[in-house]
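Reagents: none. Just compute today. SDR family oxidoreductase.
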Amino acid sequence: MLLKDKVAVITGGAGQNGLGFATARMMAEQGARVVILDLAVADPQAAAARLGAQHLGLVADVTDKASCEAAAAQIKAAMGRIDILVNNAGITQPVKFLDITGSDYDRILDVSLRGTLYASQAVLPTMIAQNSGSIVCISSVSAQRGGGILGGPHYSAAKAGVLGLARAMAREYGGNNIRVNCVTPGLIATDINKGKIPDDKRQAILDGIPLGHIGEPNDVAGCVVFLASDLSKYCTGITLDVNGGMLIH
Ligand code: NAD
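Predicted 3D structure written out:
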């Protein structure tokens, strides 16, 4: 098992059809004790219970620093350590550049970008004290190609910001044996895009994917498990594309 006895925390991990829950499930299968963090409305306790009694679900809003810190303290008390953080929480909005309002901008950047900052700040002191840790940040192909699928320009900016923040963390904490890497998923079938791909756009999207199909949550989960595990122990600051070849660069 790749993650035996590791404690893995996943933000935004409660959605049954989401990348976070697929990652949580695969990490549990690989021997990790998993902590699912999510908003109350997503019911993280129920999601964790679906994985088994040794796993934990906590309400935490990644846009709220105090909420992230409280969750980290509860995890430390319950599990004793924190080995892995997956910064997965994110929201999107399909809107054109000139239509982005200040509150749209704040909302989208706050979850992906501020959320990555706050959740990472909450777990880093524990990882530094352990002299080990692996943080995986979920960015998006949207950051690399300037959107153009479902998210608006502010979503691209948030996800590009995640790449910069993660690389800076990787540089700062390499000496503490903490690795920080990113995954950039292409189009993956989850609730974030369910029913939002118009039929006339679908074929054009598929034509742009060399592997010829939309990805599944487990396609991303496998890559996150790889980056969280010691299989990737000499990788830090990298960006792993999981997009069926949609962006070959
Ligand atoms: P999803 O909507 O199923 O998952 C997002 C989760 O984040 C939800 O469980 C939601 O409750 C949670 N969340 C939202 N705001 C939060 C907050 N303030 N605090 C804590 N949790 C919060 O969608 P998904 O497709 O599984 O998305 C997971 C990640 O992958 C997101 O960051 C998304 O931007 C990214 N992503 C998805 C795709 C795709 O095609 N599905 C592609 C590239 C990147």
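The chain has one domain: 7-242.
Action item: order primers for follow-up constructs.
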